[in-house]
Known about the structure:
Blueprint: E1 2-6, E2 12-16, E3 21-25, E4 33-36, E5 43-48, E6 54-61, E7 66-71, E8 77-79, E9 86-94, E10 99-106
Antiparallel strand pairs: 1-2, 2-3, 4-5, 5-8, 6-7, 6-9, 9-10
Amino acid sequence: SVGYVSGGGGLILKILDANSTTTVVTEIENVQFDIFPNPANDEISIASSKSLDVINLRIVNVLGETQLYHSGKIPFRLNVSNYKPGIYFIQLYDKSGLRYFRKFMKL
């Protein structure tokens, strides 16, 4: 199984049980995007300080299970009312293959 741990400064640790190894993935560039409200009950919004040419958006839980996969432009609002309470990670991928990460909490 796969798990994710978030640290300060956009640092994400991806933990793989099978090999007992840890891969560190850091935020690339200084692109900012915000998730609000955070924590959230029913809906989250995503806003960016720069124009992101996002082609894929993925939301995963702390176990690495994909909750949502969206291809295309960043959706402004996402319904998270059916998500279980906990921590989730949003992964954005742009056309050049760069990845951006943020976390949010579902109440």
